[in-house]
Design a protein that fits this description.
The chain has 174 residues and is of the alpha+beta class. The chain has one domain (45-166): Nuclear Transport Factor 2, Chain: A (Roll). It is 44% helix and 26% strand. The chain is built from five helices and five strands; from the N terminus they run H-H-E-H-H-E-E-E-E-H. The protein has helices spanning 7-33, 46-59, 67-75, 80-101, 163-166, and strands spanning 61-62, 104-117, 121-131, 141-151, 154-160. A five-stranded antiparallel sheet has the order 1-2-3-4-5. Helix 2 packs antiparallel against helix 3. It is elongated and about 80 Å long. It starts with 6 loop residues before the first helix and ends in an 8-residue tail after the last helix.
Length: 174
C-alpha cells in the first residue's frame, strides 16, 4: 500500500517538517545564548559564583572544538560589553594559542576574596588551577581578577583584568 499526497498537501507537510526541525534546533541551541543565573554552590555568594563560572569558561580550552565555541561559551557568562571584548580582543589570540599548542584543558576555580565592591560592579580575586596545562605555561596555578556586574539581578562578567590593573588591588593567597 502506497500513500500519495496532493502536491499542495505535500508542500505543506514539507514546510511544516522544516519548521519543526528548525524549532528543535533553535531550542537546542538556546542554552548557549541564554544568560541565566547559575545556582551557586552552598555557601558561595551569587557574585562569587559568577566570577567562578566566568573564569572556568574563560580558562577551559579545547583545540578539537569549533573555534567559535570558546567565545560562545564564555559569552554566556558575560555582559554585552564583556562579550564584545571576548569576541573582538581575546578570541583571536586564544584561538591561535589553542591551535598552535593543541591545548585541551579544564580548570578548577576557587574564590580567594572580594577585592572591590562598588555596588553593582565588583572584582573578585580567584585562583585558577589549569588541568593538563600546555607546554610553556610557567605556572598552572594562577590568580585572576574577575570584574563582574549585576544586571537585572544577575551577576555577569565584564572582563578578566590585565596585570597593570591587578597591581591596583591587594592580593591574598588562599
Amino acid at each position: 500500500m502506497q500513500i500519495s499526497f496532493h502536491p499542495k498537501a505535500k508542500k505543506i507537510l514539507i514546510i511544516l517538517g522544516a519548521i519543526a526541525v528548525l524549532g528543535i534546533a533553535i531550542f537546542a541551541a538556546l542554552p548557549f545564548f541564554h544568560k541565566h543565573p547559575v545556582v551557586p554552590a552552598q555557601g558561595t555568594s551569587p557574585d562569587a559564583q559568577a566570577a567562578i563560572d566566568a573564569a572556568t569558561a574563560f580558562y577551559t580550552l579545547d583545540y578539537t572544538a569549533d573555534p567559535d565555541l570558546w567565545a560562545t561559551r564564555v559569552c554566556t557568562h558575560t555582559t554585552e560589553a564583556g562579550c564584545r571584548a571576548i569576541q573582538g580582543f581575546f578570541a583571536p589570540t586564544v584561538e591561535a594559542l589553542v591551535m598552535e599548542n593543541q591545548v585541551q584543558t579544564t580548570c578548577t576555580v576557587t574564590p580567594v576574596h572580594l577585592v572591590s565592591d562598588k555596588g553593582s560592579i565588583r572584582v573578585w580575586q580567584v585562583t585558577v588551577t589549569i588541568i593538563n596545562p600546555w607546554p610553556g605555561l610557567e605556572n598552572p596555578v594562577q590568580d585572576a581578577f574577575v570584574e563582574i556586574e549585576e544586571l537585572n539581578g544577575i551577576w555577569l562578567m565584564n572582563r578578566i583584568l590585565f596585570q597593570q590593573e591587578i597591581n591596583n588591588y591587594p592580593t591574598s593567597t588562599p
